[in-house]
Amino acid sequence: MRIGELAQASGTPIETIRFYEREGLLPAAPRTEGNYRIYTPQHAERLGFIRQCRNLDMTLDEVRVLLRFKDQPLAACGEVNSLLDEHIGHVAERIRELRGLEKELRSLRAACLTPHVAADCGILNGIDQAGAHGAAQRKRRHVRGAH
Amino acid sequence: MRIGELAQASGTPIETIRFYEREGLLPAAPRTEGNYRIYTPQHAERLGFIRQCRNLDMTLDEVRVLLRFKDQPLAACGEVNSLLDEHIGHVAERIRELRGLEKELRSLRAACLTPHVAADCGILNGIDQAGAHGAAQRKRRHVRGAH
DNA sequence: GAAAACCCTGAAGTGAGTATAGAGTCAAGG
DNA sequence: CCTTGACTCTATACTCACTTCAGGGTTTTC
Ligand SMILES: [Zn+2]
Ligand SMILES: [Zn+2]
Ligand SMILES: [Zn+2]
Ligand SMILES: [Zn+2]
């Protein structure tokens, strides 16, 4: 199959497939005489695996580790288990943070129930004060935020 | 105060302060003879506001809107309220997604309780199948993920 | 007067793609 | 045979919110 067909079948944009090849997640596909990539069902399966991992919000580095095990079927899978445990931790921590955030945002929102003048807006003024009593600092994690 | 002192006082890296100036979130600071930026308490307050918004996981574009209202204290604050409502929606939606993700990851994890050979790993094989019965597709949002 | 600490600019890198531009390939219709 | 249109190719730039780096200049302190 050619790249467009694989894209269709897997629900992956063409550019993303080429990107995965550049990044070494997919092996370089063989080419036709006209320099078109051609894919086998094995390619499609591997791409499906990558996409499923991304749907589980893993980083490409995390995916790379799992692919290494797929490529070495005789290796012990202990590292797979611990990678998953860590990643579950990433997700759980992010949920905790976002819940705190949501609470803070809702109480901020309650400070301005009827619109008035910006200078007196309970939200705008509330954001100023929120910093005063020491809020949490943002950290860098890999499970994405809200936007 | 000079940039280092402002950085210290606000818990913001120096480079980030300069970045905010380039992006127009902070006004260009006046300079000393030696071309050093000098800041007033007003600058510090504005920076604190920006940082607080970032702690609430807003995008810089969302922050820009709020700053516009800070700069026009006589405007009606209705847009502030709706921006906050939308952003609360961003956060709430992301929490919902991550909860589903966590559940899926935990059930995947349960498929391999004792390590064995990669070819037989319930996790690696489970990821393959997860895609088969139609999992959720990732979307682009602004509240960051887990990593 | 020299070292240490501070500051400057401009450019490039991060992650995980997305979006162009400009060119080449291939099947079908006239 | 020629053209149209769908498909594909590479290379490059853009996204976001910074961070890091290279290569300098300034100020303070000993
Ligand atoms: Zn993770
Ligand atoms: Zn208000
Ligand atoms: Zn938002
Ligand atoms: Zn296993």
From TrEMBL, chains A, B:
InterPro entries to which the protein is assigned, alphabetical: CadR-PbrR (IPR011791), DNA-bd_dom_put_sf (IPR009061), MerR-type_HTH_dom (IPR000551), MerR_fam (IPR047057)
DNA-binding found in the keyword field: yes
Lineage: Bacteria, Pseudomonadati, Pseudomonadota, Betaproteobacteria, Burkholderiales
Top-rank taxon, per record: Bacteria
Coiled coil segments of this chain: none
Domain HTH merR-type positions: 1-69
One of the Pfam families matching this protein, by short name: MerR_1
Designated name of the protein: Cd(II)/Pb(II)-responsive transcriptional regulator
Keyword annotations of the record: DNA-binding
SMART domains, per the entry: HTH_MERR
